Here is the input.
Amino acid sequence: MKLIRSGNRGEEKPGILLHDERYDTSGLGEDYTHDFLASGGLQRLAFFVEKEKDRLPKVAPTERWGVPLANPGKIICVGLNYHDHISETGFIPEAEPILFLKAMSALNGPFDGITIPKGSLETDWETELGVVIGKTGTNIEKPEAMDFIAGYILVNDVSERAYMKKRGGTWDKGKGCNTFAPLGPYFVTKDEIPDPGNLRIWLTLNGELMQNGNTSGLITKIPDLVAYSSEFFGLFPGDIISTGSPAGSGVGRTPQRFLRPGDIIEYGIDGLGSGRQECREF
Here is the structure.
């Protein structure tokens, strides 16, 4: 299934994508929260849609696409998880995966637009595969890791690189600015993505192809990331692990190219749809 949420910010209603049309599933009486995922909500939704599919109301084409998950607990991001991206950034590879958290206040819809922070010099794009956790776990064993996944979601890990590297402290300064975590357009259940380790990732800037990678290039693979992350964070339904970005970010261009007001990025991953963000000044 492809789960969506539609409507004005703060007023989103749950829905589903069927045959490229959006349908309202409010009749189920549940939004796509972490409690929904934890309590078998996906199974209830599948039964409801099968029963009511001919009576579900359509969502108007003009309705805003919201964040597909109502209340993710956290977004755990993985840094430097593709060799080609390490090369272009100039960072030194680490012996273990780099993990950091992205602020929930940065959540943003797939077409809402990106606000460039005041004084920003190096706002950059990073298209990533997001793994949505479906059940609670800590110190998860690698052979069981895939059982903890509910599905996948398109993420853009928008980053202000000068904040990250030149302002002291941790990367979090450049990762959690408002609008810096666009999610969706939809949350795709695990059964629809049989091989998350072989998905094309792409991004264009003003129509020019910048990123053209594949999840086969992940250094630390998805089961390993789930198990590894669970050593340091309790994983809970609705949490997202954003698995890292392949090469093609602005920091790797010669000369470097960062986002400016009026720029448009369009990006996507096989099976997870695409997003479009127009950049604006603070």
